[in-house]
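Lab notes, practical 5.
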Amino acid sequence: MRRFPAEWEKQQGLLLCFPHNGNDWPGKYGAIQWAFVEFIKKVALVETVYLVVADEKLKAKVLEMLEIAHVNISNISFIIHKTNRSWMRDSGPIIVKNGSNREALNFNFNGWAKYKNFQLDKHVPSKVSNHLNIPLTQVKYKGKSVVLEGGAIDVNGKGTLLTSEECLLHPSIQVRNKNFTKTDYENIFKEYLGVTNVIWLGDGIIGDDTHGHIDDLARFVNEDTILTVVESDSKNKNFKPLQDNLNRLKRAVLENGSSPKIVELPMPTTLEFDGINIPASYANFLILNKCVLVPTFNDSKDRIALNIIADCFPNREIIGISAIDLIWGFGTLHCLSQQIPL
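Output from the prediction step:
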């Protein structure tokens, strides 16, 4: 039977992809590369980084940058593969336990049902699973390929999964799987992820390019505690949907019938760029073996968010990572990565 381990369980390493598509960060590509080097450096202190690079030329450049930044090179394992983008949470494989073995799942990435240039990203799961020597399974349901991004789900490793209706059930915007119902998704979660209980939130945060990913909204921090973002300004567009999600969580139950503990996490001050709301969220933190990396936004609420997250992880170091450049690509630390459980 399959089981998707929780993110805080022991990891072999972390999958990342070095950015080479400057279009994802207009005017900030130079800064992004160094921000990414700092990200890699923090991860390489505690576990292996499986780093996808477009070609040998970029690999050489990245190695030079890593050496300048005094990164632990012995903890870097390169995978040569050209991608369209760097969002490994969504295009990379989801690795589950199947009995005592591991299995990589290919959830058929399609550019969030929004972008047409994803043909290179489609091959990331096979490249990564071959590199790790883990068998790969194409996820299908009733004979059809299933599309699901890693950023759309979060689990406690015991049988409960968090997701959002906006992302998976909207009838007309970024439809991943036409005519799929809650029951269809819950059957898929049970078969492939070992999930017996699903908590459905409503809408995602304003400006989210993925249309409702859960990793900007609510996250498990242990098997019975959920961190969820709330907006304090009642005039902000995020206020009502985030209050709705909070109320849904207060009514929710876990796989054992008990109520989850709910911890509220503030939203940073709204970021705007060229008239566009940028989806900055502290919920996009990343849990590693010995630490938690938290995106920060040069905001007065950074300290508050770091303290709240620190209280949730008493046995892990909490490290703030400036994401003020990364977020112009509409995602930060969690979106860019995918854990590889042992």
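Observations recorded by the TA: The radius of gyration is 19 Å. The longest strand covers residues 11-17.
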